[in-house]
Amino acid sequence: MERITPIHPTQRTKQQLHHKPTTDFQNILENRLDIDHEQIYDTETNETICDIDNMDEATLNKLLEEHPIEYDKIGRMNYNPIFHARMRQPWTVDELNYVINWYDKVGPDELSFALERTIKSVMQKATDLRKQGKMPQIQGYHKRVSNISC
Predict the structure, then answer these.
(1) Which pLDDT score, from 0 to 100, does residue 88 have?
(2) Which of 20, 52, 77, 130 pairs with 28 at a CA distance of 20 to 30 A?
(3) Rounded alpha-carbon distances, angstroms, from residue 107 to 42, 91, 128, 130, 146
(4) What is the pLDDT of residue 131?
């Protein structure tokens, strides 16, 4: 059996540094384009660029070429106007309640698609809400210790 030696981070190629999204995450990306109310906004003028439901496949492919999906070094999607239409807009009370109630259940990846914001902004908002005391702190978990007190 061949022994695999670890590679020092400075010796890794650019391709090895970028994480590939999981198949579940790819399915979420593919299904995201099927939502019928999605509109794409220009970040500078805040005007609607196009409406995904009224778009044919060739136009959608052209749009994805203009705005390719990119990831940071730990696998989070960077800003893309196709998926993050509500970026730089104030958070509504409904969105904050949604983050409070669902963040620990579904995670920041799914919340970012539901709220049309980047994963980083959803994670930062959850941190801010926890610091303000509006969102419960993360509870420690140990599989052999129950929550029953004697």
Answers:
(1) 87
(2) 130
(3) 27, 18, 16, 15, 24
(4) 94
86: left (phi over 0), alpha (psi -120 to 50) or beta: alpha
Q: Which tens digit of pLDDT belongs to each residue from 33-82? A: 443 334 454 444 444 555 555 667 788 778 888 888 888 898 888 888 88
Residue 34, phi then psi, degrees to nearest 5:
-90, -5
- Domain ranges across the chain: 21-132
User: 122, 86 in Cβ contact below 8 A?
Assistant: no
Which residues 6+ apart lie within 8 Å of 38 measured at CB?
32, 51, 52, 53, 85
- Look at residue 123 and give its three-state secondary structure: helix
